């Protein structure tokens, strides 16, 4: 497989795509948001349960490509137990990573699980796939009702 | 005086020589991700032969001038070249007269033109317009906008699981309120070739005019608008190896005469005062402003080019490729073809179990293979089949079986990686 392609579709991403974590509807969610990518018709629902400013639980349902599904799966696995402020910080970090704002010198320790998405910056058309779940999650945290779109 | 290159300058095509045809298309020699380009996104747009590129180049290098009403030499040359292109289109679809050929920006504009002129004058509150479930958004939205404005109703003929229009349902939908029918000839997302003649004849029993969206038809099969007897017909230049930004609306002369203008401006008038404007005669009434002169000339060149090779020959070649590809993909585990119409052309739409079309598209891109992934501007079709998107390989005159093999090998690799 081509190097760039291999970096985009890392084993971790393929694994999360195949068996996504927290892939379920949450009945006791304190807030949900719906995300939509009109470019490809991808659709995601993100559920959050926030208690005392802490994300107690987060899950998602929907359809999308490997990048968007893995991104949602990794996101949910990282957010549990974080405060809303910490979640927003992670969102910003992720956004900077996939849009190439962090440059080449990536601190993989600091990025943690997010580092597997570094390859996305080489594929500008796929940035929207990677960030849909995160934007939708932010809207859920903020309690925004309107549908998130990537356009 | 500079003349356009004559058709006779094209090499005579004795038998179908795909290698020779490929040589006419400079872009087919480029590499993508260091692999030879395998261009299978022809239903989105086709590549351009040097014959077309050269004629556009020649126009700008030696003829460029605004058309009509100029008294200087160049204006005469460009007007003649532009009007010659109209005659080429007229002959190509066998319209009765060249005044029935309106140059537009493309099929989308042609449909909007009819919706906003014929539609606005003839569709009243409570009336109905019939389309099918497999229409491109461009043959849905203009009618939807019109219906909303007029408080009219859009009726949709359902399709079956093979992706064919259920003809009997069409007959049931036609009633005294029906003011217009608009149907696609060849579906861009399913490849289905609709028996449009049957629809036209039935609509005419009730004096209902019918619009045929020919965007995916003219490049695959011969079209004779008089034989079809359709009232309107539209296609785009860029899907038949011509430039983008130019398209055609054909309309029967009596219908076009009765329609009000679409846009106001220069060229569409014969006399203007502040009190009143007298509109120009056909086809100029519908061509306000300076048109895409080079585009029209390029389209003329494209039609000359395909006519020399022969639309029937092209269609036959593409059908062979489609049959070959359809057979070959059965080897791929988890692959399901979307659109299994008996009459089908040039389009292979499919889904792979648990693998999203966008991932397929990115993977194939690294094999040099360009396909389209998504809803193909036919979201109702995707909804009908309960899928968000498909992968679509679409064939043109220059594609080869070897290229189909590259596609198949690419798909096998994807299944391996994701499986």
List the keywords:
heterodimer, A: 151 residues, alpha+beta, Sufe protein. Chain: A, 4 strands, 19% strand, B: 419 residues, alpha/beta, Aspartate Aminotransferase, domain 1, Aspartate Aminotransferase, domain 2, 2 domains, 7-stranded mixed β-sheet, 14 helices, 16% strand, globular
- Please name the CATH topology of the largest domain in chain B: Aspartate Aminotransferase, domain 2
The first-to-last residue Cα distance of chain B is 64 Å
Strand content of chain B: 15-25%
Order of helices and strands of chain A: HHEEEHHHHE
Report mean pLDDT of chain B, rounded to a whole number.
95
Looking at CATH, which topology of chain A would you report? Sufe protein. Chain: A
CATH architectural designation of the largest domain in chain B: 3-Layer(aba) Sandwich
Helices of chain B, by number, come to 14
Portion in helices of chain B: 25-40%
Q: Would you identify the regions of chain B where 5 or more consecutive residues have pLDDT less than 50?
A: 1-13
Look at the structure and give the CATH class of chain A: Alpha Beta
Determine the CATH superfamily of the largest domain in chain B: Type I PLP-dependent aspartate aminotransferase-like (Major domain)
Give Rg of chain B in angstroms: 22 Å
Count of runs of 4 or more consecutive helical residues of chain A: 6
Report the β-strand fraction of chain A as a percent range: 15-25%
The main pleated sheet of chain B reads as: 7 strands, mixed
Q: CATH class of the largest domain in chain B, anyone?
A: Alpha Beta
What's the number of domains of chain A? 1
* Assigned CATH architecture of chain A: Alpha-Beta Complex
Annotation, overall tally of beta strands of chain A: 4
What is the count of distinct domains of chain B? Answer: 2
Task: Describe this structure as you would to a colleague.
The complex is a heterodimer of chains A (151) and B (419). With 151 residues, chain A is an alpha+beta fold. Chain A has one domain: Sufe protein. Chain: A (Alpha-Beta Complex), CATH 3.90.1010.10. Chain A contains 6 helices and 4 strands, in the order ααβββααααβ. Chain A has a 4-stranded mixed beta sheet with strand order 3-2-1-4, covered by helices on one side. Chain A starts with a helix and ends with a strand. By secondary structure, chain B is an alpha/beta fold. Chain B folds into 2 domains: 13-42 and 311-418, Alpha-Beta Complex (Aspartate Aminotransferase, domain 1), CATH 3.90.1150; 58-307, Aspartate Aminotransferase, domain 2 (3-Layer(aba) Sandwich), CATH 3.40.640.10. Chain B starts with 17 loop residues before the first helix and ends with a helix. Chains A and B meet through α1, α2 and α3 of A and α12 and α14 of B.
């Amino acid at each position: 497989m081509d190097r760039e392609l291999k970096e985009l579709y890392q084993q971790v991403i393929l694994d999360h795509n195949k068996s996504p974590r927290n892939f379920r509807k949450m009945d006791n969610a304190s807030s949900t948001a719906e995300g939509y990518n009109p470019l490809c018709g991808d659709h995601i629902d993100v559920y959050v349960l926030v208690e005392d400013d802490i994300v107690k639980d987060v899950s998602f349902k929907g359809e999308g490509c490997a990048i968007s599904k893995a991104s949602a799966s990794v996101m949910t696995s990282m957010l549990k137990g974080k405060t809303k402020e910490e979640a927003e910080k992670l969102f910003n970090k992720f956004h900077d990573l996939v849009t190439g704002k962090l440059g080449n010198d990536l601190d993989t320790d600091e990025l943690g699980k997010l580092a597997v998405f570094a390859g996305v910056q080489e594929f500008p058309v796929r940035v929207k796939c990677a960030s849909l779940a995160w934007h939708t999650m932010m809207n859920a945290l903020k309690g925004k009702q309107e549908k998130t779109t990537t356009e | 005086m500079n003349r356009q290159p004559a058709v006779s300058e094209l090499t005579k095509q004795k038998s179908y020589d795909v290698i020779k045809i490929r040589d006419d298309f400079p872009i087919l020699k480029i590499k993508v991700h260091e692999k030879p380009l395998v261009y299978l996104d022809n239903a989105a747009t086709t590549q351009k032969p040097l014959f077309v590129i050269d004629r556009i180049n020649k126009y700008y290098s030696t003829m460029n001038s605004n058309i009509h009403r100029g008294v200087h030499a160049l204006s005469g040359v460009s007007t003649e070249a532009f009007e010659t292109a109209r005659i080429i289109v007229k002959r190509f679809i066998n319209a009765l007269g060249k005044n029935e050929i309106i140059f537009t920006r493309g099929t989308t504009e042609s449909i909007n033109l009819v919706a906003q002129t014929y539609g606005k004058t003839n569709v009243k509150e409570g009336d109905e317009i019939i389309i099918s479930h497999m229409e491109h958004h461009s043959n849905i939205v203009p009618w939807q906008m019109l219906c909303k404005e007029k408080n009219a109703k859009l009726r949709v003929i359902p399709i079956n699981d093979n992706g064919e229009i259920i003809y009997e349902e069409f007959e049931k939908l036609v009633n005294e309120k029906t003011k217009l029918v608009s149907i696609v000839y060849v579906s861009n997302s399913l490849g289905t070739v609709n028996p449009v003649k049957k629809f036209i004849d039935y609509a005419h029993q009730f004096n209902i005019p019918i619009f045929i969206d020919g965007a995916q038809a003219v490049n695959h099969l011969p079209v004779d608008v008089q034989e079809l007897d359709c009232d309107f017909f539209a296609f785009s230049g860029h899907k038949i190896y011509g430039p983008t930004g130019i398209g055609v609306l054909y309309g029967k002369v009596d219908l076009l005469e009765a329609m009000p203008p679409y846009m106001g401006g220069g060229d569409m008038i014969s006399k203007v005062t502040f009190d009143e404007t007298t509109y120009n005669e056909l086809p100029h009434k519908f061509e306000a402003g300076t048109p895409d002169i080079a585009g029209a000339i390029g389209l003329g060149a494209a039609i000359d080019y395909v006519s020399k090779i022969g639309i029937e020959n092209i269609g036959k070649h593409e059908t062979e490729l489609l049959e070959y590809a359809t057979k070959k993909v059965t080897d791929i585990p988890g692959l399901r073809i979307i659109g299994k119409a008996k009459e089908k052309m040039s389009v292979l739409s499919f889904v792979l179990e648990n693998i999203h079309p966008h991932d397929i598209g990115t993977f194939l891109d690294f094999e040099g293979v360009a396909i389209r992934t998504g809803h193909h501007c036919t979201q109702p079709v995707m909804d009908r089949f309960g899928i968000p998107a498909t992968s679509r390989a679409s064939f043109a005159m220059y594609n080869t079986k070897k290229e189909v093999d590259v596609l198949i090998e690419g798909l096998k690799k994807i299944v391996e990686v994701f499986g």
